[in-house]
Amino acid sequence: MKAIQFDSLIQIDRDQWNSLAGPDYPFLRHEFLLALERSRSACPETGWHPRHILVYEHNELVALMPLYLKFHSRGEYVFDYQWAEAYHNHRLVYYPKWLTAIPFTPCQGPRIAIKTGVDQQSIVSFITSYIKETIADTGASSWHCLFPDLSSTEQLESEGLSLRTGIQFQWFNKGYRDFDDYLDSFSAAKRKQVRRERRRISEQDIQFRRIPGRDISEQDWEAFYRFYQMTYFKRGMQPYLNFDFFLEIAATMPEQLLLIVAVKDGDYIGSALSFIGNDTLYGRYWGCHEEYHSLHFEACYYQGLDYCLENNLTRFDSGAQGEHKIARGFKPVYTYSAHWIKDRRFAVAIDDFLERETAEIEKYRLLAEDHLPFKQQT
Length: 378
Prior knowledge:
Elements: E1 2-6, H1 14-21, H2 30-38, E2 48-50, E3 52-57, E4 60-65, E5 68-70, H3 81-89, E6 97-100, E7 113-114, H4 120-138, E8 142-146, H5 150-158, E9 162-172, H6 179-183, H7 188-203, E10 206-212, H8 218-233, H9 243-252, E11 257-264, E12 267-276, E13 280-288, H10 295-310, E14 315-317, E15 331-341, H11 344-369
Parallel strand pairs: 6-8, 13-14
Antiparallel strand pairs: 1-3, 2-5, 3-4, 4-7, 5-6, 8-15, 9-14, 9-15, 10-11, 11-12, 12-13
Helix pairs in contact: 2-9
């Protein structure tokens, strides 16, 4: 086997990449990653240096992995600032680092795409060895793989990478017929709360439209982007993604986009953009100019749940954070990241930290489960 690195998706044939990445997980698609690069949202100027790996065996593509050389930790959602500070305090350099991730996208999924029929563990072992052997050439301190699926997580752990555990809140379809059938699984008090929230939307004379990707107009995109910007501006931040990124994915992968807009008195007052996978709805971006009672819950959760139920999707991954999701039936699930630290002294210290952190994460998960709204928690 041999590995070849590319410093842009432009250099990689789309069909060849997608033949392994597939359409089920939208964020590994060539179109999505290329849009990040072409829009200059994830590029060297913003601290994301693409170094994507393609693995060949007998001149046949058998695996691929997105890879970036990072000079900061922004846009990752797995926070290692304390690790970088510890390096600095010991007069060592933490950046650059190798990063296998989907920029700005804390959604579990495949991080190493492997051709069907090829031994997966041998590929992961080869890539791991390749990274370790070449990491010195860049001066990188470490390699990090964020939000891999469970299969990749187990394989990376077997190659000696340290695992870090996190929590997200996700919804799972238990064969509910519709939203009312779903609410029937709630306790009476929690069911009443959700119905009250949805009723408040009607009382404020707010309507919702779900616009499939192919039907989203440029005016719709302009309105959405203004809302999206506000989510960051309210926190004193600049948006990670620019308008060109959204126009590009609108042109190249519209079949996997769903825009939900809130309308009042004929005007848009907020919107949420989701991605559609094979069996999963991925809630990603949201914003509004003015706050209305329960608007966020309806736009980001209840409308998405309706869509999942109507289209027989089995999971709703609504993104990072958000304990308020628990009362709406989103269960705490583990997420993972895998880390290889070149300096063994720091590797040992980080392993000790991760062991203690994991114990606290487990306590938090059990506590969160106790607050789920279901009559019988399963």
